[in-house]
Amino acid sequence: MLPEPELRRLTELVPGDTPAGAAAAGTPGAATPGIEEFCREAEALLGPEGVLREEAVLDRCSRDWAHMSPILAARLPAGRAEVVLRPTGHDRLPALLSLAYRHRVPITPRGKGTGNYGQAIPLRGGAVLDLTGCNRVAEVGEGWIRAEAGAKMSDLEARARAAGQELWMFPSTFGTSLGGFLAGGSGGTGSLRHGTNGDGFVRELRIVPCTREAAPFTVTGAGALPYIHAYGTSGVIATATVRLAPARLWTGLFAAFGAWAPATAALAELVRLEPAPRLVSLDEPALVRTFGADPALDRDAHSLRAIVEEEAAPAARALVERHGGRVLDTRPAPEGPALISSLSFNHPTYHLMKAEEGWFHLEVAGDVLLGDTSAVKAVYPGTVLHLEGMRSGTVGMLMARYRDEPTVRRGIEALEELGVRVHDVHQWYVDRRVELVREAAARTDPRGLLNPGHLRAG
Ligand SMILES: Cc1cc2nc3c(=O)[nH]c(=O)nc-3n(C[C@H](O)[C@H](O)[C@H](O)COP(=O)(O)OP(=O)(O)OC[C@H]3O[C@@H](n4cnc5c(N)ncnc54)[C@H](O)[C@@H]3O)c2cc1C
């Protein structure tokens, strides 16, 4: 346990940082009053195997991937569960949420805990609600699949494929939970065409609020938006129905370029290819060198990788060659597309940080990342770039050597002046559709008990 002043500093409230519900829940670092009674009643609901208090479990379930930000890493550990609840069916959730409400115990939902940037850290202690035991894939229909929140995205894709369909999208962390991806993630393989997980992917959610009755309710279409990327602060996702498309026959195309600008020109054109690719990624050689050795990845070249339909592979190859690139391999499914997915989005950052300490990263967007990026790269000396092609515009990760927080902040301003849109990954507050989330949370979480500390008051 950290000394009290240190704990206070780490979990200090910033101006406006109070839950959107009526009361601030939990005192950082202090035991939640009533936690023992809460645990006894939870045990009556779940049995002893569903109420875990071993130190190692509490530690493990209080962490996520916040340490990928050196700014957040300096604030860790920032909160610790007092108990971990592990239900094995979503029908148990209303009774647990009602119990948390009555005892005023903070409750932080959790899937696989791979969310970046501290979303899943129980900043005010209380209970972590581990949903990985609620993992049944319930039903597949024409264009949709319904599952419990703890089901793995990889299981959903497998079930969809068995029915001749495929997910609209899944993250590069393929084995993570449906609830975690919807409540904490953004997009991934498939987003090139279908956008983020808030762009129509969700057909229906069953939400459990933290109220006296905790009566579950269903939201559909745009009505689901206050619960997507809301870190569970507006309700616990019990089950979700998400969109499927007819399955396509994918292949992985691996290309190498001698320079960044022609590689980005090829990326921009590949994104517009018809039929649409599922994913197009680009990395500088400094990143490629941190990936596992593979003849499809030239460690001295810029690596452009695309998941394309088999019938589109000849057109994609011709396009690459027209821009001066070399196709190193076309590798069929499942291996080729799986490797390309596993190197997308935040995975290059992960590989770089694993290979060498001392890096930080930003999520960046804008077509200014294509072509000549010398001005962008001059903001932080030693910058390396990873790009993802989207029909809605280019996004990516910018990585550079970490000096200190003021340098990062000044750099963000300089990048924005150059036309780069920057998503600040060095904070753990809900930062999308915040007003919608607050409005929902005022109804669904009147005591401010759901993942408290992550939703700033307006
Ligand atoms: C190397 C790396 C690469 C990544 N790549 C991607 C990527 O390609 N795309 C992407 O979107 N993300 C990516 N992520 C982030 C993360 O892995 C994904 O978003 C993942 O799908 C989160 O799922 P999880 O089960 O680990 O969720 P968790 O980390 O357990 O939870 C995420 C958030 O959702 C909340 N939550 C969990 N379950 C529920 C529920 N049932 N109801 C309400 N709230 C809930 C948690 O409280 C937390 O705030 C990456 C992370 C890393 C470390």
From TrEMBL:
Pfam families: FAD_binding_4. InterPro entries: FAD-bd_PCMH (IPR016166), FAD-bd_PCMH-like_sf (IPR036318), FAD-bd_PCMH_sub2 (IPR016169), Oxid_FAD_bind_N (IPR006094). PROSITE patterns: FAD_PCMH. One of its GO terms (molecular function) is D-lactate dehydrogenase (NAD+) activity. Gene3D superfamilies: 3.30.465.10. Coiled coil: none annotated. This is FAD-binding oxidoreductase.
